[in-house]
Amino acid sequence: MTRFLRPLLLAFVLTASLAEASAQRAAGAGRPADFLDPAFHKSRRELLRQALPAGSAAVLFAAPTRTRANDVSYIYHQHPDFYYLTGYDEPDAVLVLFKEPQTVGGQVGVTEALFVQPRDPKAEVWTGRRLGEEGAKQQLKLQFVANNTSFSGAGIRWVDFQHIHFLDLPTDVRDDAQDPADLFDLIATFRQQAGIPATSDGGKAELYHSVERYGVTNAASVKMYVERQMKAHPVLAADTYLQGYLQATTDTERQKAMAARPTSRFESSVLNNALNELRAVKTPEELSLLRRAIRISTVGQQEVMKALRPEMGEMEVQGLHEYVYKKYGAEFEGYPSIVGAGNNGCILHYETNDKPHVGNDLVLMDCGAEYHGYTADVTRTAPPSGKFSAAQRQIYELVLAAQDAAIKECKPGNDFQAPNKAAQKTVADGLIKLGIIQKPEEMRRYFPHGTSHYLGLDVHDRGPYGPLKAGNVITVEPGIYIPEGSPCDQKWWNIGVRIEDDVLITATGAENLSKEAPRTVAEVEAMMAKPSVLDDFKLPKL
Question: Where does the Aminopeptidase P N-terminal domain start and stop, copy by copy (predicted)?
Fold first, then answer.
């Protein structure tokens, strides 16, 4: 990145950096043509409005910008809910949905209003083109669009609504004194005009809803969750509703305690639950983007397997995956790439990736391309030598058997935890057979995470985590991790294996969307025996 820090420009650079990456992806000629259509976002808004009770307004804010270092910002990433509902990919914006038509900015009959950052030619020279009010009207096609400077004077009669729904409001947003309608000001305006109490806590409301929904059917887990949250957030410790629930010892007492839930016109659980249900079931348009993100990621796994050598470093392996993503037009990684060799592969979210030489240890590669906002999540584990050792093969084939058992449980109507239970049983039985553990419950030492999560605009996507439904896309990712020093035969030490695929729940079962990435021992070894396009790629020594 080139920086011009001459004194006359310094003040402007620092000012412009507050909006860094604010509009890098404004639509225009020469850009990809396969983004989601405005009609998709319109349909999502209408379905969300239908889920709201009478007398409601729902308010959603764009994501804040984030500083990486000094005056350098991270590349802007829109809040997935906001993008899902609008297609707008810039900061300092607010969306308001009304159950019943309202008058906004003098326009009658409004059910949806979007307030966006205005055009600013000087800022756009530095940070990219903005849509502005007119561009947003033309391209996003919402019913009402105005500059964010109009939000405070839009005349929304907040006092008239029985229910005002909003997600957790960020409290760590920077205030740009030179911008009267940045995210800080938009949130402050909303709080003041809607009369939101300073003590309003969206997280507490969501906790209330968890108690209300699962407090009897899954009482033990809910009790542990509530206790953990109360310990982490002392303000919750004095909450009489939560205290009453924890003190109940029978289902009858729990139901009585749950019925005493405090009511408020300010609510987050309705909005959260509606978005969970909507985003969990992917539309054909979403599946098209997800399939592309996943296929790009599987090609990355194939090409890296061909190129992988013991003398390579973890960071180099990471770079090869991410080069393939860029080659196919994936804008980002869906999450920090995990490339761990040997003992590093036993760290679940290892992101340092700085081991200079992977050697002959297994290399665990958990990497996913993000294409137009939708992310893949694919993991493969490969031997740099091209051949699994006997011990590596045994652990790998046990993880593969666990994944096969889990995928068999991926069918509509099954509980979300069914794949996890199948995988855990297979791993426990296999580890006992190998002499690594003695009792099934010891399995958690070596397989400490769950098997599945939803996948979509977030790598850990929204969803209700209830019965599986056609249209869900979930991961299936069992693993076994045996770090150095584990209480087992040393021949197993430094072996970390995870096999992760992205699975679409269909009307009759499941479709493995990432099956192109080699899964079996034979497939992995056969892929690694193929020549790589990088075999003759040599850089000069430094």
Answer: 36-168
Beta strands 332-333 and 144-147 are unpaired
Q: Which two structure tokens, joined as six digits, stand for 523?
A: 């497939």
Q: Sign of the C-alpha dihedral, residues 83, 86, 87, 89?
A: negative
pLDDT tens-digit map of 73-88: 999 999 999 999 999 9
Within 13 Å, how many C-alpha atoms sit on residue 490's CB side? 1
Quick: pLDDT tens for 496-505: 999 999 999 9
| CA neighbor of 305 nearest in space, from 149, 519, 450, 134 | 519
Largest CA distance in the chain: 75
CB 293 within 8 A of CB 325: no
- According to DSSP, the residues that pair with 115 across neighbouring strands are 94, 146
Pairwise CA distance, residues 496 & 342, whole Å: 7
Query: What are the E-state strand segments in 247-291?
Result: 266-267
Spatial separation of the C-alpha atoms in residues 162 and 168, rounded to whole Å = 19
- Give the integer Cα–Cα distance in Å for 250 and 76: 49
Residues 6+ apart with CB under 8 A from 428: 437, 440, 442, 443
CA 444, CA 436: separation in Å to the nearest integer? 12
326: CB partners within 8 A, 6+ apart: none
**The tokens of 198 are what?**
């300073």
Pairing of strands 163-166, 56-61: parallel
Token digits of residue 425: 């049983």
Q: Which two tokens stand for residue 386?
A: 């091209």
Helix axes 418-433, 390-408, angle to 10 degrees: 150
Rounded Cα distance between 397 and 393, Å, is 6
- Residue 525 to residue 393: CA distance in whole angstroms: 11
Q: What is the DSSP letter of 444?
A: G
Q: One-letter amino acid identity for 356?
A: P
Contact 202, 110 (CB under 8 A): no
Residue tagged 């997800």 (tokens): 290
pLDDT, tens digit, for every residue of 432-479? 999 999 999 999 999 999 999 999 999 999 999 999 999 999 999 999
Report phi then psi at 333, rounded to 5. Answer: -90, 145
Q: How far is residue 318's CA from residue 310's CA, in Å, rounded to a whole number? A: 14
Q: Residue 132, by phi and psi: left (phi above 0), alpha (psi -120 to 50) or beta?
A: left
Burial of 436 (0-12, 13-18, 19+ CB in 10 A): buried
Give this prediction's pTM.
Answer: 0.91
Show the beta-strand stretches assigned E in 91-135: 94-104, 107-116
Extract the tokens encoding 469.
């439904």
Separation in Å, CA 77 to CA 28, 145, 191, 305: 19, 21, 24, 31
